[in-house]
Specification:
This protein folds into two domains: 104 residues, Rossmann fold, CATH 3.40.50; 100 residues, Alpha-Beta Plaits (2-Layer Sandwich), CATH 3.30.70. It is 30% helix and 14% strand. It contains eight helices and eight strands; from the N terminus they run βαβααβαβαβαββαβα. The strands form three sheets. The chain has a four-stranded parallel sheet, with no helix packed on it. A hairpin with a 6-residue loop joins strand 6 and strand 7. Helix 1 runs parallel beside helix 5 and helix 2 crosses helix 3. The longest helix is centred in the first third of the chain and has 15 residues. The model has no long low-confidence stretch (mean pLDDT 87).
Length: 237
């Protein structure tokens, strides 16, 4: 389909709470609704990308300009790329409600529109629902060393049959709130969008916060005690 219009995507990250998040999201959502601007509201962008990537691809195939209001741009770019979207074919802008104010975001996406103050009611996940906690890979940083594949015990990672690159093949196999594979990645290329601290949460990587002290090891040949020793050492830093 020919790209012909613009739209917005708002992720409310319903499985996680962040400081001032409900107030920010309420204001952004109420303003979007009152302005009659075209937008798509997703309770959890991670979950949609993992379970129904075709829904995201359809949006990007139908619009030439997309503004994404979610978390850290590095995390969102890597997440969208994992669905097979060619990001270079769309005019994209990213807005991070975890770090930006609602007013700042609205001024960028709806210039001249007065914010409508409102607080979003927190939506609780139904009992038994899968919490979309899983890693995404920053392809600009990944060197395909295979550390994550060797380390993970839950079959989250696999090698792509076509290009041989490590990919997240089984996101539902990941253990909620466990970012261990990200801590042993030598290039700090693994992101958990729901994590709180940088750079694992998708914030930018610099010399101070990258995992430069992790050596490339074959974790598959190491004992559990050796692996946990490395992890414990890293978690103290």
């Amino acid at each position: 389909m020919q790209q012909h219009s613009n739209t917005m995507i708002l992720c409310s990250c319903e499985f996680r709470s962040f400081p001032d998040g409900e107030e920010k999201l309420g204001t952004i959502l109420s303003t979007l609704e009152s302005s009659a601007s075209p937008f798509h509201l997703f309770g959890d962008l991670c979950g949609i990308c993992a379970r129904s990537p075709e829904k995201i691809r359809e949006i990007f195939n139908s619009h030439g300009e997309v503004s994404v209001i979610a978390c850290y741009p590095r995390a969102v770019k890597s997440l969208l790329a994992s669905t097979g979207i060619s990001l270079d074919k769309v005019n994209l802008s990213f807005h991070n409600w975890r770090t930006q104010s609602a007013e700042e975001i609205l001024a960028a996406i709806l210039p001249g529109v007065k914010p409508v103050k409102s607080v979003r009611k927190e939506k609780k996940a139904a009992s038994g629902d899968w919490i979309p906690w899983f890693p995404v890979i920053d392809r600009e940083r990944c060197t395909n060393c295979g550390q994550c594949l060797s380390f993970c015990l839950f079959g989250v990672y696999a090698k792509d049959e076509e290009d041989g690159k490590v990919k997240v093949a089984n996101p539902a196999g990941c253990k909620t709130d466990c970012p261990a594979c990200a801590r042993i990645c030598p290039q700090t290329a693994i992101i958990f969008p729901k994590y709180t601290s940088p750079p694992i949460n998708g914030d930018e990587v610099d010399e101070k916060n990258m995992n430069k002290d992790i050596k490339v090891e074959n974790f598959g040949k190491m004992s559990p005690d050796e692996v946990y020793k490395i992890l414990s050492s890293r978690m103290k830093k």
